[in-house]
Amino acid sequence: MGTAACPKRMTYGPCGGVGADGGCEVAPEPCVFLPRPLPVRWSGDGTPLEEPRTRAGREVLEVMARRPLVVSGFPAAPMSRDSVRACAEALRGSTDCVLAGDSGRARVQFPPAYRARLMAAEGLRVWSGVNCRDRDRDALDRELASLREVGVAGVHCVTGDHTGSGDRPDATPVFDLEATTLLPRARRAGLLTSFAESPAAPPVRHRPARVAEKVRAGGRLCWLQYCGEVEDVEAFAAATAAAAGAPVPVLPGVPLVVDRAGALLLADFAAAVLPEGYVERVLEARDPEVVGVQVAVELGTRLLGASGVAGVVVAGGAGPGREVAFARALATVTRELGGGS
Ligand code: SF4
């Protein structure tokens, strides 16, 4: 049963886009979930959830059994095979898997399975972002089956930003499913799953319990929106373990900023809270690229040593035309953090 007044038609809200003042990320009104009893309990039928059927998915679990997982973003230009290949080449061997996600500045991308096919052909383990904004459940089921055939390591299941944000506000938003209802479909398709949570977005005290509900729905790894200092990540990991009754593998983000364009991109993320002075230290440096890599390695190293942290996701962006250079910078950071070993 959907929640009619939520612009994303969510049942298992609130999404991660709730403003600091409790405002909806889409409509000029308060988020409809804030006055309701939370968390919204997962009402699924308890169908057995399959273990990953792809070799890459099993390899990721093997890596996680011996050390933290190091994931990188993928900065390729949209709709460009050449850029996909060049960025893949830059990242190959330096990271455990690569997230091919969504971008507010380029909503029109190759379909996830096709992009994953191109990336896998270049020797990467691929973690594909799948959102509920662009496709209904039939199209999503086709996409999940295709991703399994391509052999991706896993899928990052998100409700997704509304079309009201980003570069295609003319598109009709779908939201037939949402992250919580996409997760069990991905597990039944034989895929390893991840989901997002925004610890710093209101209602902050209910966010750990929301993670627990997503785990009950079929989520395996929880990837965190930037939420402040290392201690904030540790506190959230402990709270999710308490809410779920067992530790949840939590992977905080490590933002890589190497120029002003990347800093602006970061500013677009709702509910993102960075360690104090993080971006300023890069932008005020004589060589922002060198210092950007340095601060990302420092933060990533501290996060990998933090209690309750199962890995990190290093991501960010740079100005148009700098995709391959940014992929090389990502590779430097992930290699330093032990990725690909
Ligand atoms: S903030 Fe998110 S969950 Fe809340 S009403 Fe808006 S779109 Fe729905």
From TrEMBL:
Q: Which UniProt keywords apply?
A: Oxidoreductase
User: What residue stretches are annotated with the Methylene-tetrahydrofolate reductase C-terminal-like domain?
Assistant: 4-33
Q: Which SUPFAM superfamilies match?
A: FAD-linked oxidoreductase
Q: Which domain of life is it from?
A: Bacteria
User: By its UniProt entry, which Pfam families does this protein fall under?
Assistant: DUF5981
Q: What is this protein called?
A: Methylenetetrahydrofolate reductase C-terminal domain-containing protein
Organism, as annotated: Nocardioides oceani
